[in-house]
Amino acid sequence: RSDAKESDEFTKQISRQVGITTSSLSRHLVANPGKGQFSLLQLPRMLRDELDMKVIDLNTSSVASYEPAYLEKVREAARDAGCVLTNLKLNQRGLDMNSRDADVRQKALGEYKRSIEAASKLGCRWARPLPLKETPDMKLHVAAYRELADFAAERDMEMLVENYQWMESDPNSVVTLVEKIGKGVAACPDTGNWKDNATRYAGLKATFPIAVSCDFKARAITPDGRHPLYDLKRCFTIGWKAGYRGPWCLEHANADRKALFRELALLRDQLRGWMKEQDKD
């Protein structure tokens, strides 16, 4: 993937695409599916056939095993369906790569590196460690991110920074952290993870210029597609005006599988419609 042509091909594959984060499917995507459920091996074909989408942003809880044979099967399933596995969110709980305790810190970094290795085998371009609630010691945090970024770079990957937890109240938190870490890291703004709307729109305006992916999060939506909590179209427009062209990875949950797919399709069509509107302008 370090080859320039492959990099260009990857960019083409994800440009203007509406995709999905597997956290949206947490109640339906399981290792051993029962009635109405499905596995990660089944997801790529289902995503293409039922939702006409191809970009998949993974969560560690969605990956049943790090065994190479399983990871290769997932990669093949995505390739055979014409899907792209872009990112692995490292959402393991109980890890603290910012701890002042060196053993705790190294345990977290070791587990994250194991996950980055798995993401590489899956063919992902990015991985994202989990921000914690408490503001970290920035020196330790940057050093840990730098270590992960160097490890990822050896596998032709980058680390992502997402506005979550301690970062949600500062609209410049993502940009500031990316600058401090330096090379091998980029932004993945989440439209939902801000403390209020003023911070949200300011944060997206600051972050989208350095974004390579976006968690396009929607909460409760009405049957006709309205989203009362915040202005989804405004979030999209901020990104577009900043030069961001996708992928827009939908993050939206519903315990009812049929309703979930209907709402995901509604959000997909809205985004595709907004992109067409921009083309006319």
Textual characterization of the structure:
By secondary structure, the chain is of the alpha/beta class. Helices cover 44% and strands 12% of the residues. The protein has nine helices and eight strands. The longest helix has 24 residues. The mean pLDDT is 95.
Name a few traits of the molecule.
281 residues; alpha/beta; 8-stranded parallel β-sheet; 9 helices
Strand segment count = 8
Q: Which whole number gives the mean pLDDT? A: 95
Taking all Cα atoms into account, the compactness measure Rg is: 18 Å
- Strand residue content: 5-15%
Low-confidence stretches: none
End-to-end distance, in Å? 35 Å
Question: Main β-sheet: number of strands, strand sense, barrel status?
Answer: 8 strands, parallel
Q: Biggest sheet, strands in spatial order?
A: 6-5-4-3-2-1-8-7
Tally of alpha and pi helices: 9
Structural class: alpha/beta
The helix-strand sequence is HEHEHEHEHEHEHEHEH
Helix content: 40-55%
Question: Short description, anyone?
Answer:
It is built from nine helices and eight strands. The protein has 281 residues and is α/β, with parallel strands linked by helices.
Topology (SSEs and partners):
Blueprint: H1 4-14, E1 18-21, H2 43-51, E2 55-59, H3 68-81, E3 84-90, H4 102-122, E4 126-129, H5 138-153, E5 158-161, H6 173-181, E6 185-187, H7 197-207, E7 214-217, H8 232-241, E8 248-251, H9 257-280
Parallel strand pairs: 1-2, 1-8, 2-3, 3-4, 4-5, 5-6, 7-8
